[in-house]
Amino acid sequence: MNIVARQVPPRAAWALEQAGVHPLLARLYAARGVLSHDELDDGLSRLLPPAGLKGITDAARLLADAIAAQQRICIVADYDCDGATACAVALRGLRLLGALQVDYLVPDRVVDGYGLTESIARRVKERGTDLLVTVDNGIASVDGVAEAKALGLAVLVTDHHLPGEQLPTADAIVNPNQPGCSFESKAMAGVGVMFYVLLALRSELRARGAFDKSTQPRLEPLLPLVALGTVADVVRLDANNRRLVAQGLKRIRAGHAPAGIAALFSAAGRRMDAATSFDFGFALGPRINAAGRLSDMSLGIECLLTDDAGHAARLATQLDAINRERREIEGGMREQALLMAENLFAEGAEPPPAVSVFDAEFHEGVVGIVASRIKDKLHRPTFVFANSGAPGAEGQLKGSGRSIAGFHLRDALDLVAKRHPGVLLKFGGHAMAAGCTLAAGQFTVFEQALAQVAREWLDAAALTRRIDTDGTLASEYCRADLVDTLLREVWGQGFAPPTFSEEVEVLSQRLVGEKHLSLKLRHQGRPVDGIWFGHTEPLPGRVLLAFRLDVNEWKGERRVQFLVEGAQL
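^ that's the sequence the OP posted. Answer follows.
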């Protein structure tokens, strides 16, 4: 492991300080590419204009025509948190803007698989739908869209995933990653894309005289949902996404959140008035995702749709219970999968450049989480497979992968598919996360093919885990109130949370819960508590640590705590 301090452009840090930014925050922002105070303005007026999205004008007209004709609109969602929040934003927003007949359908992870399939198109048609709208999916659903069109449905695809070689023949497509789209933010989540479609639709309806600027429906109440889905989908937090998340957090902290979000905060034991982006990623998001993994994502969507606090509380309690079950299943699978992965190489030797594991007992709903855990442990692109439970898919394997920097997972799958036709029945995803279905009996071929691509693309430096940090932490900044300030900022993928590094003295250490290392440290002459979650091996008396900051409350006393991310021994 290498612990490396980020470079801080001195002029940028100085400029931010001169503009009134706290010196520590100025240093952190400058190291993440922020050059001026203007870039930190998170006001709604600073959002990129919807007009930059290719196809959004056609989408707005299509929806406005459907509303005017009182047509039936059906939202086809996805079964993760981004898909659930995008569905809730679509339904809430369309109803606000005058849609009288709008409902949704969410695929079953096991039975239906991913995206708009031909069978789902037929089910949507059977509901008497006129306009089918996809959220967080559809860009790869060439056959599903073709079937919907053949059935006489109008189709609007809203998505953010990378398209394949062929685009679906939808009436309109809104996706910042489609060919020819000049929209500056390519990292927007599916829920962000749907929110932008609603902004364009409101403008179209305003132009048609449905209302004026003073009487138009307010869409800002949807921003807590947009913020949750954006963080939970681990998309890159570029300036536009950070503004969306910041706006959502402000509303939640002020108590202006849908009943479902409030109930999820309560179920997770988190405070809305102190909401952070970490709450989205590690508390609310997993509870919604658990429904799609083990049960029915309709539970998550209904929780986000209801305005009844009591009903929201009951649904949040159900989601919390499902998430506990998910953790139990994941724990057993993780241990088994990690043991299988470690058996791929001799003790003391380097792991293979890519890791693929399969067990007939694995649950396909949690393979992605387990892949992420193995990737974190071994620092290798990782795929975990389970038997497909879909009807008629006997023998097929469904896998989910997670990657490391420098290895674009979807592009790697594309290369595997071209080199070994017939092995991959379907695949899709992003650079860092992807999914695929293998033909029966093809696991070994896939395992060797993926490892070969990794050998070609990854060098020794890429295969060595690296933690980028913000260097040393001055002792005067080791204060609970300053940690609170840091936590309230928007951090996440592509805009890493503050992580510091320096050599500390280990005064004492002990295991807690048999799997976490509790530490007493001396940092710049002062004692401080630390904890390293998921780590059991003892540390030497002096060690270079990479750590984040947290506040531990005990008997009314608030003390800074180091959350250890890694050690360079």
